[in-house]
Design goal:
This protein has 164 residues and is α+β, with helices and mostly antiparallel strands. It has one domain (8-138): Gcn5-related N-acetyltransferase (GNAT) (Aminopeptidase), CATH 3.40.630.30. It has helices at residues 17-30, 37-48, 100-114, 129-138; strands at residues 8-11, 55-61, 64-76, 81-91, 119-122. The protein has a 5-stranded mixed sheet with strand order 1-2-3-4-5, sandwiched between helices. A hairpin with a 2-residue loop joins strand 2 and strand 3. The longest helix has 15 residues, at 100-114. The protein is globular, with a radius of gyration of 20 Å. The protein starts with 7 loop residues before the first strand and ends in a 26-residue tail after the last helix. The model has no long low-confidence stretch (mean pLDDT 93).
């Protein structure tokens, strides 16, 4: 049986656009997000802007990009440290089981160590059991629960009463 080629992890580049777009669309489909070329193009723009906080790594196997990791740095007032946050991780379904996710997360932990950061953090969907099986071998599952609130305009101000 032929030996599987180990993934190569490298920084994202403009030459990755076509393949990244295909993988990012598949990622959005996996999470049942609406199709949106506007979002795909906006994120591409972020990744191409060296001033934007979002960055990406890609995984290659036999010269083909088969996965990506989107990341950003963050500060944690909670414990006075800084870390890397893994926003998105995706592997082409045809390349799963070849160590792509493990290699991408491994590279992130190496980056965090080289930069003197305290942690690499990420979250996944509660029903993404396949990903959790990998993550449980690489990191500690926390007890934190994530919440999201919709932005809301400030409440209207009442004019001061004439009696003060």
């Amino acid at each position: 049986m032929p030996e599987k080629t180990a993934p190569t992890i490298r920084p994202f580049s403009p030459a990755d656009e076509h393949r990244w777009r295909a993988l990012f669309r598949a990622y959005r489909e996996f999470y049942e997000l609406p199709e949106s070329e506007e979002v795909v193009s906006r994120v591409w723009g972020w990744l191409m802007d060296p001033r934007h906080e979002c960055e990406a790594l890609v995984a290659e196997v036999d010269g083909e990009v088969v996965g990506f990791a989107h990341l950003r740095r963050f500060s944690s007032p909670y414990d006075g440290t800084t870390g890397l946050f893994l926003d998105d991780l995706f592997t082409d379904p045809a390349a799963r089981g070849r160590g792509v996710g493990r290699a991408l997360i491994g590279r992130l932990t190496e980056m965090a160590a080289a930069e003197g950061r305290s942690v690499v953090q990420w979250e996944t969907a509660a029903d993404n059991f396949q990903a959790q099986a990998l993550y449980d071998t690489l990191a500690t599952r926390t007890s934190w629960v994530t919440y999201e609130a919709e932005p809301a305009p400030p409440a209207p101000r009442r004019p001061p009463s004439p009696t003060g």
